[in-house]
From TrEMBL:
Alphabetical list of InterPro entries matching this protein: DinB/YfiT-like (IPR034660), Maleyloyr_isom (IPR017517), MDMPI_metal-binding (IPR024344)
Classification of source organism: Bacteria, Bacillati, Actinomycetota, Actinomycetes, Pseudonocardiales
The UniProt record lists the keyword Kinase: no
Keyword vocabulary terms for this entry: Isomerase
Pfam families: MDMPI_N
Top-level division of the source organism's lineage: Bacteria
Record-linked NCBIfam families: maleylpyruvate isomerase family mycothiol-dependent enzyme (TIGR03083)
Record protein name field: Maleylpyruvate isomerase family mycothiol-dependent enzyme
GO molecular function term, any single one: isomerase activity
Mycothiol-dependent maleylpyruvate isomerase metal-binding domain residues: 11-86
């Protein structure tokens, strides 16, 4: 399945998921944001992708700006903007930006699922697709910083990140890996996964955003 259908399906699931929910329900995976804020971020983020506006990505201000600028909008406003911006961003799905958009929407789908206590959709192709770009980024980061190679064993096969022979192995699921490298797990939670080798060798490299969640997050 290509990027656009994956994104559209996730958007449809999110729309159904939050229908009837309190828009002000807190979303613990994204502290300080509500259900409405997450949808506003997805809408605003798409516009920023279409406009190639990425200031504040490293600091986290990128997403905060989108939410702050839409704080007075309703959930219906957020969905209307998401629809409009999706059409603007359509050409991006057939570019290297496509997997980034898929990773973003799938991560936030599960943030909303956790907040609304409706888990699901953890075992399909969507989560594996959401790992494509993050694993490429991890591989490059490990090579650039001379981090020893790591074998990651998932339910659908193995992947070696970094250069050379693996110095250790991490066995987990695609869902847990997505949440771990996406900042939804604490360092202690990641260290508690099934490792061969000292996880401290890789723990810093596994924080794609530059930091792990300070406190454990269960979902």
């Amino acid at each position: 399945m290509t990027n656009a259908p994956l994104y559209d399906a996730a958007k449809a699931r999110i729309t159904a998921l939050v229908s009837g929910a309190d828009p002000q329900t807190p979303v613990p995976a994204t502290p300080g944001w509500s259900v409405k804020d997450v949808v506003a971020h997805l809408a605003g983020g798409l516009r920023d992708f279409a406009d190639r506006r990425f200031d504040g990505v490293e600091s986290g201000e990128w997403g905060e700006r989108q939410v702050r600028d839409r704080r007075d909008n309703s959930l219906a406003d957020a969905f209307a903007e998401w629809d409009a911006n999706l059409e603007l961003a359509r050409p991006l799905f057939d570019t290297p930006m496509g997997p980034v958009l898929v990773a973003e929407v799938i991560a936030h789908e599960h943030d909303l699922r956790a907040a609304l206590k409706v888990p699901g959709e953890r075992d399909g192709v969507e989560v594996r697709a959401a790992l494509v770009k993050p694993l490429q980024q991890l591989d490059q980061r490990m090579r650039d910083n001379d981090v020893p190679a790591l074998r990651i064993t998932l339910e659908h096969g193995d992947r070696v990140l970094g250069h050379g022979e693996p110095a250790g192995t991490l066995r987990t699921t695609s869902f847990e890996l997505m949440r771990a490298i996406g900042g939804r797990r604490s360092a202690d939670q990641i260290k508690a996964l099934d490792w061969d080798g000292d996880p401290d060798v890789w723990i810093a490299a596994l924080a794609l955003s530059g930091r792990h969640r300070p406190e454990p997050f269960e979902e």
